[in-house]
Design a protein that fits this description.
4-stranded parallel beta sheet; Rossmann fold; 16 helices; binds adenosine monophosphate; 3 domains; 14% strand; 4-stranded antiparallel beta sheet; Four Helix Bundle (Hemerythrin (Met), subunit A); Cys-tRNA-ligase; Cysteine--tRNA ligase; alpha/beta; single chain; binds zinc ion
């Protein structure tokens, strides 16, 4: 089948045909988490969105080098190179070494993403593991004339840069407005221009995470790690650079400027930004304190939650929105997603119980498949794909109920379609009732016990077994071939 993948490029503010720079190796860089605390559900939404993109590229047959970094140094509390170091502050609070903080939250991040069934990236570089690459890049930017050193700190010279390049190319903001929104420099300030930002920061005596450099002992600025690590693993120019929308205005704007000043080229051909997960309309964020931890969501152990939800129901909730739309958290929305997810998995489980007929009367699988690809080819439109999947659910249920029939060839094709779109591309799995093989065996034991009860005319017991199974979402159906079961 011919594919014409189209994606929305933040850089051009347009949907564009995806044409990789090197067709046999797609390079994708996604800004990873800052591991000084647990990731919240908003962070997870961004990583699940890029997992969907990664999975679809793989499904289309691209070889992808997916690089997602771990920010484990250099993050100060303020956006403007001000405030305490987040890692050092947390280390003091938890009475741990900064690298123990990094280790603890990196493991937590991996655990959570595994629960969400995201594929690991090809490379997961850390900022602290690439200090020399960052120093090298800062040196080159200085040599090219776009940075200056003051008293052990190196600043990027935005004022010089804007004379030659479009600094706000990614967001199309007005430079005057940006200047007006930035505080005036005072006598204490070392930097020359209001928009200048630090590439390398001199370490105060109490600063724990510090490295030697040509400018004295210090640590890297917030943005240089991604420029240095994407260049190292993907080259000066690569295909896709992604992250949450909140990163575009500062972090990604500065990444572009750094790469341009160092390599004389913009780093990525396509910039992709995921929209925010919100709570009552406000962005979920660590600092706002409105961030659910995924663990709280799974157990329901949070004041705003009526109950817990399985990781796959939450993944389904995320995929029901397009990655460029905001997604507002609510109990009702999660309940609806949970129901939809269970309906889908229940129908899929029926596929193994359907006996093929001589003829198919269920309709046109090819058309469904084409519409499913069209949805994903249109900027990874998972909600449209899911609507298509519910059409498939309706068909499966009708076949199971005997209203429609399917022959062997079509049944195999339907199973392959489900494998591709539900499991490979959407990355869902059936986490409702554990291992399916085991479940079949367990259910057979229960069904046999119920049949024994019926034979002994113990109808109170046989009814009780059926009712209690219904209460936990399992339906029994007596047929001429014996008793069948399915999830409701
Ligand atoms: P951080 O750990 O804060 O650096 O964030 C890691 C990633 O999560 C970045 O790509 C952010 O843009 C993204 N992110 C942060 N908050 C949200 C949110 N509420 N919804 C979606 N993505 C978010
Ligand atoms: Zn980054």
């Amino acid at each position: 089948m011919q594919h014409n993948l189209v994606l929305y490029n933040t850089l051009t503010r347009k949907k564009e045909n995806f044409e990789p720079i090197h067709p046999n190796l797609v390079g994708m860089y996604v800004c990873g988490p800052t591991v000084y605390s647990d990731v919240h559900l908003g962070n997870c939404r961004t990583f699940v969105s890029f997992d969907l993109i990664y999975r679809y590229l793989l499904h289309l047959g691209y070889k992808v080098r997916y690089v997602r970094n771990i920010t484990d140094a250099g993050h100060l509390e303020g956006d403007n190179d001000e405030g305490d170091d987040k890692f050092a502050k947390k280390a003091k609070l938890e009475q741990l070494e900064p690298m123990e903080i990094v280790q603890k939250y990196t493991i937590g991040f991996h655990d959570v993403l595994r629960l969400f069934n995201t594929l690991p990236p090809s490379i997961e570089p850390t900022a602290t593991g690439h200090i020399s690459e960052q120093i090298e890049m800062v040196k080159q930017i200085i040599d090219n004339g776009y940075a200056y050193e003051v008293n052990g700190t190196v600043y990027f010279d935005v004022e010089k840069y804007v004379k030659e390049y479009n600094y706000t190319i990614l967001t199309n903001r007005n430079l005057e407005d940006m200047l007006n929104n930035t505080r005036e420099l005072g006598g204490q300030d070392e930097k020359h221009g209001r928009l200048d930002f630090a590439l390398w920061i001199k370490a105060k005596p109490e600063h724990i995470m510090r490295w030697p450099s040509p400018w004295g002992v210090g640590f890297p600025g917030w943005h240089i790690e991604c420029s240095a690590m994407s260049r190292k693993y993907l080259g000066d120019q690569f295909d896709i650079h992604g992250g949450g929308m909140d990163l575009a205005a500062t972090h990604h704007t500065n990444e572009i400027a750094q790469s341009q000043a160092c390599n004389h080229s913009t780093p990525a051909k396509y910039w992709m930004h995921t929209n925010m997960l919100t709570v009552n309309g406000a962005r979920m964020s660590k600092s706002a304190g409105n961030g659910f931890l995924p663990g709280e969501l799974f157990t329901g152990n949070h004041a705003l939650l009526n109950r817990g939800y399985s990781p796959m129901a939450v993944r389904f909730f995320m995929l029901q929105a397009h990655y460029r739309s905001t997604l507002d958290f609510s109990n009702e929305a999660l309940d609806a997603a949970d129901k939809g997810y269970k309906r889908l998995m229940t129908a899929i489980a029926l596929l193994d119980k359907i006996s093929p007929a001589a003829k198919s009367t269920f309709g046109d699988l090819k058309a469904i498949q084409e519409r499913s690809y069209a949805a994903m080819d249109d900027d990874f439109n998972s909600p449209v794909l899911i609507a298509e999947l519910f059409e498939v659910v309706r068909i499966i249920n009708s076949i199971y109920d005997g209203k429609l029939t399917i022959n062997k060839k079509d049944l195999d094709a339907l199973k392959a379609y489900i494998q591709a779109f539900v499991f490979d591309i959407l990355g869902l799995k059936d986490d409702q009732l554990g291992d399916a093989d085991n479940m079949d065996d367990l259910m057979q034991i229960i069904i046999d016990l119920r049949n024994d009860a019926k034979q002994n005319k113990d109808f109170v017991m046989s009814d009780r077994i059926r009712e209690q199974l219904t209460a936990i979402g399992i339906q029994l159906k007596d047929s001429k071939d014996g008793t069948l079961w399915n999830k409701i």
